[in-house]
Amino acid sequence: MLAFKAEEQSQLQIVEREEIEDEEDLFEAIDKLTAHGINAGDVKKLQDAGIYTCNGLMMHTKKNLTGIKGLSEAKVDKICEAVEKIVNFGYMTGSDALLKRKSVVRITTGSQALDELLGGGIETSAITEAFGEFRSGKTQLAHTLCVSTQLPTNMKGGNGKVAYIDTEGTFRPDRIIPIAERFGMDAGAVLDNIIYARAYTYEHQYNLLLGLAAKMAEEPFRLLIVDSVIALFRVDFTGRGELADRQQKLAQMLSRLIKIAEEFNVAVYMTNQVIADPGGGVFISDPKKPAGGHVLAHAATIRLMFRKGKGEQRVCKVFDAPNLPEAEQVFQITPGGIADAKD
């Protein structure tokens, strides 16, 4: 159990954007284009299209940018030239890449064993996907991360706010209260630092992601949760005839998630459903695989497989990760969120 004294409570308040010195290097505001000869009206058009940083602009194709009302091909070329002067999007040395990785923050899951499995916790600038059957602990981890992200970095937190996109109606603000109490935090302040949206269609889900850029450019966000990423796609697209279209739209949304993660140094935690795999063969004891196919598999940086254990115990297995060995760890769901399993 983590308990803090009253005077330490003040440390748990979210640090304002102006006070974060290290953040300044992460992204350049789109307003800086005006100093490079770009019309303020054109900058406003970019902001209206959900582009708030120079880094974010470089993540769009020229075809996309000319699709913005009022931006001609000549204007787009001029904007891209100006952005290249502000942001270096070319090659860097391995040493520089290593230095850049130092800005990655690892957020505690609430369980020390699970943190060790993940190399320190859920990391920023990456997409962590958790898939498993219902009641396997995916949403419980999401609720715990809503609180732990707001802890100071010296307490394995992210010292930032949380955005939660809910496609299945499973977010429970009352669940946050006992978790906040376990971490010794003020539940009211914790809830105020979570922005929540309920998505009803895949288009609504995508538009909510586009609207996030404005908020993340102004305030210190550290975590974006999408619970679950695939649910609305499985509802809005049916049958094999629409499969190609579904995968294309899913790829676009996942591309947006990757860009948000890297543009704002945010941890993206998304949950995924499983589908029965009849072709799994008789030798596989549990023939289930994550939904979304190869498109989703390639988009996720770290894939975690959750399954039920004894009683309140759950098992998390590293299914795929670029820097983690394949291993598994047992954790427990408690009233105060995710915690280490008791023997």
TrEMBL record:
Gene Ontology molecular function: any one: DNA binding
CDD domains registered for this protein in UniProt: DMC1
Primary location recorded for the protein, binned into one broad class: nucleus
One Pfam match: Rad51
GO cellular component terms given for this protein: nucleus
SMART domains given in the database record: AAA
Biological process according to GO: homologous chromosome pairing at meiosis; reciprocal meiotic recombination
Locations listed in the record: Nucleus
Domain RecA family profile as annotated: residue spans: 103-274, 280-343
Keywords: ATP-binding, Cell cycle, DNA-binding, Meiosis, Nucleotide-binding, Nucleus
InterPro entries reported for this sequence: AAA+_ATPase, Dmc1, DNA_recomb/repair_RecA-like, DNA_repair_Rad51/TF_NusA_a-hlx, P-loop_NTPase, Rad51_C, RecA_ATP-bd, RecA_monomer-monomer_interface
Family under the similarity heading: Belongs to the RecA family. DMC1 subfamily.
PANTHER family per UniProt: MEIOTIC RECOMBINATION PROTEIN DMC1_LIM15 HOMOLOG, RECA/RAD51/RADA DNA STRAND-PAIRING FAMILY MEMBER
UniProt name for this protein: Meiotic recombination protein DMC1 homolog
Biological source species: Salvia divinorum (Maria pastora)
Underlying gene: DMC1
